[in-house]
Amino acid sequence: MSYEFKQELKLTQKLLLTPQLRLAIKLLQLSRQELVELVREELEKNPVLEDGRLDVDEVPMPESRTVEVEWQDYLEGLDDYTVRTGLGGIDNSEDDYREGLLERVSSFETTLKEHLMWQLNSSSLNEREKKIGEFIIGNIDEDGYLRMLERGSMDDETYREATVKEIANSIGVSPKEVEYVLDVIQEFTPSGVGAITLRECLLIQIQQKNIDPIAARIVEDHLGLLAKRDYKGIAKSLGVDEETVIRGARLISELLNPVPGAGFGRDEARTIVPDAYVYKVGDEYLVVLNEDGLPKLNISSYYKKLIDNNEFATKEVKEYIRDKFHSAVWLIKSIHQRQRTMKRVVESIVKFQRDFLDRGLRYLKPLVLSDVARDIGMHESTISRVTTNKYVQTPRGIFELKYFFSTGVGSSNGAITPEYVKEKLKEIIEAEDPANPLTDQQIVEKLKECNITVARRTVAKYREELGYLSSSRRKRP
To answer: Which fold has domain 410-474?
Structure first.
């Protein structure tokens, strides 16, 4: 066997990503807060860049937050109460309690929302209910409470009803559906999460932890007296002795947590801040990007002059400045391109999902990345990058951009979402004759009358997900 060496010329084509192109792609993937952080880093590294908004010395520093649990903050309107004595005057060491709380805070690497979303996605709720759950979780604050409305002078019951109604109206579902999903979320950990009022939060914990019923009776009707340490008044009202009330107060103070979300990360940088806002102006929707906190980049006039000045700059200095100058110009152009792309993508989503914005969840249309890509003449990968980890605030709440993308089933008027089909299927079954329930094939035919085309096996799948039995098992005399 003989070996020989040859030299050949071969022409090949390769796609090479320049540093500038890599930067442009990276910017598309960043959230608003991440973009702000990147720009601030570039301002520190590149002397050619300037923040045109204000002087560096004038930039306000964020105030540090102290993680504290103060029951008093959750007993609005109740007087004569201090955190050091706890509920009912039971002595607690504030320092010890705070130290233990801080240990719990540092032991978690996840946020409360992430923890709740993991439980939601692992639950047996159907897709429609999970969409409702996602909206509810998005409105649970760092303390673990569901906050949708200003309470004003509303009592607990009225405030809860108003909150449920507000959620239902915001996403176009019934209050009954919201109540059901909220009940499921309130079974999640940490105990008490998703409560609308302090009273509800404590009662959830009492039930889940199987605490002495005296604690529930105190919380249910006498939180005000408990805050004033009026044990005699509580005892008289409940018809028990004062020692029993003190024992109940101790259980409340030692075993219940008025801030169920306190053990999770409270990193302000991870708080959801919308990347864009959608406003309804008349009959049209207007998209406005959130540029709050984003430095307005300029090129330093001083360094511009230095490049042209032959007297005060050496060749090496000029090359260094020229390199930084080109980097600065490219960064500014890339940010402008990112913002234009972002706005076009959100405007396209708004156009496709207008019915959802106008009428609610059941009108959320099936949408895939390629639909938006074709609409605005961009590559699908670009749309994917722009919609990742980005949020938009709409008249119906704050949503991740990915929320608006889903697959659908056939209709004579185009694709529709599985959630809509399930809603129609539910209406059909609820309206059927109990003595002669519809088979899955008959439901298929009923759906066709509504211009919805689905297979029988799809109907069977959706029926089971909604919790309905087969026709033979639904039959009633």
So the answer is: Arc Repressor Mutant, subunit A (1.10.10)
